[in-house]
Structure formats: C-alpha cells, structure tokens
Automatic annotation (TrEMBL):
InterPro entries: Peptide/Ni-bd, SBP_5, SBP_5_dom. It is found in: Cell envelope. Keywords: Signal, Transport. Residues 83-449 form the Solute-binding protein family domain. Residues 1-20 form the signal peptide. The lineage of its organism: Bacteria, Bacillati, Actinomycetota, Actinomycetes, Kitasatosporales. PANTHER family: PERIPLASMIC BINDING COMPONENT OF ABC TRANSPORTER (PTHR30290), PERIPLASMIC OLIGOPEPTIDE-BINDING PROTEIN-RELATED (PTHR30290:SF10). Pfam families: SBP_bac_5. This is ABC transporter substrate-binding protein. PROSITE patterns: PROKAR_LIPOPROTEIN (PS51257).
Amino acid sequence: MNRKTLVLPAVIGLLAPVLAACGGADGGSDGGDAIVVGTTDEFTTTSDDPAPLDPASAYDVGTWNILRQTVQTLMIQPRGQGEPVPEAAESCGFTDTGNERYSCTLREGLKFANGDSVTAADVKYSIDRALKIKAPSGVFGLLSTVDTVETKGEREVIFHLKTADATFPYKLSTPVAGIVDPDDYAKNQLRDGFEINGSGPYTFQAEESDDKLVKAVFTKNPNYQGALEVNNSKVELRSFPDADAMSSAIDDGDIDLMTRTMTPEQIQRLSTAADTQVDLVEMSGLEIRYLAFNTEAPAVKSRAVRQAMAQVINRGELVSKVYGTQAEPLYSLVPASLTGHSNAFFNKYGEPSVSKARAVLEKAGITTPVTLTLHYTTDHYGAATEKEFELLKEQLNSSGLFEVTTKGTAWDEFRPAEQKGEYEVYGMGWFPDFPDADNYLAPFLDKDNFLGSPYANSEIRNSLIPESRREADRQSAVGSLTDIQDIVAEDVPVIPLWQGKQYVAARDDVTGTAYALNSSSTLQLWELGRGVSG
C-alpha cells in the first residue's frame, strides 16, 4: 500500500556524530541488483560547456549529485541540517581566534579508485587548480576567501584565508573542493567529457549517446576510506526526457526511485493513491525560485521598473495555482527556515498593488507599458515552469503597466545565454551549496557571482558579507544578513518567488529513502538499500 512519509528537519548538529550509521531506518543490504534512480536532469557536452563533470567547473544540482558520489571532500554535510563533519579528513578546525587559518588532517590510508594514495599535496593541487582555472560557471567563487594552501607532511593541509570566513568548513564540503588525482586532471585546463576519477564511495562509468549522458553507473569503490557506510554495491542513474516518462518507469518497475522535477500532479497522485507499490517521502527543502535581472539591459536598467515588478507580482496566487501545498511564497533570497532570514520584500512592498507600482514608474518618468521578455528554461526545473511563467506574464500584463512575452529555452542553451547577459529578465532556481544564509546571498551579490550579474553594491561586497562571515555563531551574523536583504529589496537585482519542499518517490522494497536527500537537495546514494516489499 501507499505510505506518505514526512521527514522532519534534524536538530542542528544532532546527526553529526552518527553520520556513518546505518543507511535508513529500515536497514538495507549491499547485495542484489543495482538500484536504479531516475532523473530528468540532462548532462550534455557542448562547445560552451565541454567539461560538465569537472569539479573545477560543475555548478548545478545535477552534476553535483554525480560528483558527490565519486569525488571525496575533506568535509561532508550530514543527513540533517547539522554543521559539516570530516569525511576525507580525520579532523578539521580553525587554529586561530579570527577564523582565518583552517587546518585539516587526512585519514590514514586514503586512496583514489585506481589505488594511488591521496595526500595533502593532492588536496592543495585540487584547490589551487580550481582557483587558477576560474571556470565560467563561477563555482571557484566558493573558494574566494582562500589566500594560500600549505601542506605539512603527507597528511596535513592548512588553508590561510584572506579574511575571516566562518562558513569555510561548509565550502570544503562542496564538489569544487573535491580531491582530484593530478595524473588525471591537468593543472591549467578542464577535463572534457564524462570521465571522473576520485576517492569517493563509488567509481563511475558513463554511457553516452550524441554528447549526452544517458546512464551513469556507480559501483562501490573497494578502495574507499571515509566516514560513509555504503549500503549497496551498485546504483544506476538514468535520464528521462520528462517527468511523465520517469513516472511511467517507476510505475512499471523499470526504476526504483525518482526525485527532482516531479510535477505537482504526480506528487498529488502519489500522496493520495490507496493501492500502489510506490511510496512518497516528503521532506522540508531549501530550494528557491527567483527572477533575476541583467541590470544593464535597457528595459530593466531603471530600478523603478524592477521595483514596480516586485510590487505587482502576487506570490500567493503563483504558488496556489501552480504548486499548491508543495511550495510557499518567499520574500527574500534566504529561505524562511534558515538563521538570518527576513521578509525583506514583504516589508518593502507589502501586498501586491498596481496603484503603488504605477506611482513608482510615474515618479521615475517611465513610459508605460514597459515591454520586456521573461525567459525560462524548459527542461531544468520541471514541467510546471512554463505554467508559472505564463501566470507571471498574466499578472504583469493585467496591471496595464507591462507588455510581457515569455520564451522558453533548453538548459544547455539557456544557461550560457544568461551568463553572457543576453536576457533582460530570466527565471532561475537555487539549490544551496550548503545550508547557511551566506550561500543565498554571496553567490548572487559578490564579485564573480554565479549569475554573472553586473549588479554591484559596495556596502554588501566590502562590508556586510565580510562582517557576516566573521561570526562563527550564525545568530550573531543576523544583523549583517538582514541589512543585505534590505538592500536587495530596495535595489531589486532579483525578485524571490517561492520556496519548495522536496520529494522522493521509491518502490516499496527500497530502504534508506528518508536519507536519500539531505537539506541541500544532495543525493546520498550510499544510503539506499533493498529490503522486503510491502
């Protein structure tokens, strides 16, 4: 029968000591057939992105979900929302009172999948490489506070930071800090194609067709030494063209588990079905969606235009008509469940108001209607994205202040065009690199930001972000974080829209599903096992 399971957020730090415990409440087994996981994420090599799986370049939830299984990091995020704990490292910590010197000691006996030893020199090489290459994705920005990396012997690595950064342990848990083998990854260039060599819990084999990855096979790495207990011997990740095809595959038993980009209709069906062998697991999520602006584009260069859009958009209607109970309105880049969140956009604009928006435009001398195009990706955030953007268009056009059209583009074209500044307004989603408010602000507002946005605020970059990072107690950073959010609501380089839950659907003989995703939407394939159906 169907069981809808609700997984509550873990108490901060509660799960850190038990990271290596059994994968899932139902137990599991490392034997049996491969566990097959479905996804609608596409992995493609293109002229704009020839190296989608290189840790120094990859920067989206799909590619990171592959890298986290294969490329080991010094630290790792636990099952819940606790602080990161050692993984490839035996121990890590700040060695000064100013949070500017961070030292890690590697576990003994670490090896890459090919049997080569993993040393402190390999860690230094990997970090230096990412910072030197500076891939167009902007992922190297996560390491922006690193000044130099020092090694002592075979096992100790010391990071000297440019400025205090209490979030640095989180950053060492992200794939850009993944440890790569210098024999396989050149110092000055990215590794093209779909090959991966690491020291993580799995080895990786890609099956590709027409420059696309159609199946990824993860096999338990016999040389793995780390904090994780691997509860299966093999997992396959299969790509599907859309959510309907993926849903049919799990109904037919062709795949065992699916997540990400399920449609609201599919989630509703699975949550209410009385007789099915597929269970739905619901858990709190930190995914957000937002509109971003090229603030140099003529149509939206005036702050008044962006403010008027923020004043007109009705988040409540957007959520209720498109996503229902699977999302909630969001009035800041920082999700409501994180320390430092404030309802900055609601405080600034209140309820949607056409008259207030008109007054803003009139005061700035803007002729209406303002003509612009809302761009969205057709295949990266799920089938509901098109409906969402049609409703946004309807809201803006019905005000009489805007004349909006929408245009959908496949992700492999959409993302490079956005980075090149070709879109004036475009829709994006964000799955956090780590669960801290800093990771919802700095990637969009700091130098070398993820969006390639021309928006720059010197107070945010030079004062408020550094101030917030000096506070190891994140509650003490709330003042700086709130000030950043207030400035964003005033200048509107982005408009936050909604915050979503996350779901896993799995055949009922699969165990460990409650831990298949962590709070950052990271797939944790090692948690999955096989139990008894029913």
